[in-house]
Design brief:
By secondary structure, the chain is an alpha+beta fold. It has 17 helices and 23 strands. Strand 19, helix 13 and strand 20 form a beta-alpha-beta unit. The structure holds adenosine-5'-triphosphate (ATP).
């Protein structure tokens, strides 16, 4: 039942705090904000882009540097239209939708029914809620649009905006965005903005295998934008119309796919945990209804403030994609396996994670409100407990005052660190205010340069999570900070998985 889209009130409030924090401190802005935004499209600000880049770099390095048999590519967003015929997206990438005639609002039928079931559960009608979900899954599985329509009417489901049950017929709605290439706007020039990055990998399978002399099993990784005309677009950057995927297709010998599926499933779960997400905030969710191309599929879900939700999918895609591309392109997409002296179309295990959902997971997990002391001593502090390797800024350097040579000394420290880490210099306001500003963006270290620094070349380091302070020689700063924030340290941990 955690699948419902209706958050409980306290979850709502945590989510709204995270959303306003993201905007106020330069992580995520609504797209075209001055025009009041564009629904389900967002921009990353000065801190957000650093956090997102750190996540992408870690994923990329894990895949390509830590796995000798995985290489990366960067394919185009536009692809030959037949790609999407072969992948099944032209005919099958649909969601059943229904419109309310009074409010003119359009809904995904599964979302309407899930919300209804969630409300039933809140009212204590657990059995009925389960029955509603079971019936919904049955009808969706059978692609029974008429049945879904009758079910909505029978259950007297109303539109949350108009409050009426004045529904149109249930129709399929394709989620791909299309546009025209060239100047002639006829059918043949219609192309799509890719709804997933995976197909760019499949069509390059042979190019990479041949030019890289790759031997099965091997993988191809890619990070890139994907586009879906999501109808119910909400929950901030959880469901966007333009988003970024990090996908890896691992090509294996037919018959060996389940072994690799289990291996990737375990590795990907461990990856999230090593980046600081507690094991009890993550879970597997096996797909009950498998997609047409899969023979096994599981989601890794994170406990968002609005319930456990998918962040990553691991799918055993059989040879579906390569086989269909072979058929439509009339190009052989086979591999000759010298070990068994056989030609075959490889089977594929896919790991697919959204960079934006990963970002949201880390933001939700890191957002911390801390209360310490009592009475007059009571203090409240908000900070982002991000893994230091992910934090947008690694250290902030503060001269205690703006005079007496302290700014110059602080600039020296800055020059010592700026080639290795993203560091910033700040001299405005009191030290306390400067600490607060860095806490709010998750900077793990603040380095204060004071009068003693001029005498003995030491500085004070303040640690974000404990607010503990220690005196460190300037000469040891690089090593001291590097030990905590460096990508190589976390990659070493990831290597053990
Ligand atoms: P959902 O059921 O939530 O719509 P999905 O099963 O359609 O997701 P996949 O097609 O498996 O998702 O895509 C792989 C990953 O891409 C997802 O786990 C998610 O992290 C990300 N993703 C998919 N759709 C979106 C979106 N609209 N906005 C942001 N990220 C997305």
């Amino acid at each position: 039942m955690s699948q419902s889209n209706t958050p409980r009130p306290e979850e709502n409030s945590l989510m709204s705090k995270v959303i306003s924090h993201a905007k106020e401190y330069g992580f995520v802005f609504p797209s075209s904000d001055i025009y009041d935004g564009l629904q389900a499209v967002y921009d990353y600000g000065q801190n957000g882009v650093e956090l997102k880049n750190n996540l992408k770099t870690l994923w990329w390095k894990t895949m390509t540097q830590l796995h000798e048999q995985v290489v990366g590519i960067d394919a185009s967003i536009f692809m030959h239209p037949l790609t999407w015929k072969a992948s099944g997206h032209v005919d099958g990438f649909n969601d059943p939708m229904v419109d309310n005639k009074d409010s003119k609002k359009r809904y995904r039928v599964d979302h309407l029914l899930e919300e209804y079931a969630f409300r039933l559960e809140l009212e204590g009608e657990t059995q009925r809620a389960e029955d509603v979900l079971a019936e919904m899954n049955k009808l969706l599985g059978a692609n029974d649009l008429k049945g879904l329509q009758e079910f909505i009417i029978k259950e007297k489901i109303t539109c949350p905006v108009s409050g009426t049950a004045n529904w149109t017929e249930v129709r399929q709605f394709n989620l791909m965005f299309s546009t025209q290439v060239g100047s002639v706007a006829d059918e043949s020039s219609t192309i799509y903005l890719r709804p997933e990055t995976a197909q760019g990998i499949f069509v390059n399978f042979l190019n990479v295998q041949k030019t890289g002399r790759m031997k099965v099993p091997f993988g191809i990784a890619q990070i890139g934008k994907a586009f879906r005309n999501e109808i119910v677009a909400r929950q901030f950057i959880f469901r966007m119309r333009e988003f970024e995927q990090m996908e890896m297709q691992f090509f294996v010998r037919p018959g060996e796919e389940m072994k690799w599926y289990e291996q990737w499933k375990a590795q990907r779960m461990k990856w999230h945990q090593i980046l600081g997400i507690p094991a009890d905030s993550l879970k597997y969710h096996d797909h009950e209804k498998l997609a047409h191309y899969a023979n096994a599929a599981v989601d890794i879900e994170f406990k968002f403030p609005f319930g456990f939700k998918e962040i990553e999918g691991i799918h055993s895609r059989t040879d579906f994609d390569l086989r269909n591309h072979q058929e439509l392109s009339r190009k052989k997409l086979q591999y000759f396996d010298p070990e068994i002296n056989q030609n075959y179309i490889p089977y594929v295990i896919e790991t697919s994670v959204g960079a934006d959902r990963l970002f949201l997971m880390h933001l939700c997990h890191a957002y911390t409100e801390e209360i310490s002391g009592e009475g007059e001593e009571r203090k409240e502090r908000t900070f982002l407990k991000l893994h230091p390797a992910l934090a947008p800024v690694k250290a902030a350097i503060f001269p205690l005052t703006k005079k007496d040579g302290l700014p110059e000394k602080a600039r020296e420290v800055m020059d010592l660190l700026k080639f290795d880490f993203n560091v910033i210099y700040e001299e405005r306001d009191s030290i306390g205010k400067r600490y607060t500003r860095q806490d709010l963006i998750g900077t793990p270290f603040c380095i204060a340069v004071d009068y003693q620094s001029l005498e003995d070349n030491t500085v004070t380091i303040r640690h974000r999570d404990t607010t503990h302070q220690e005196r460190v020689p300037i000469a040891q700063l690089r090593q001291h900070i590097g030990d905590e924030v460096s990508m190589s340290k976390i990659l070493r941990e990831l290597q053990t998985v």
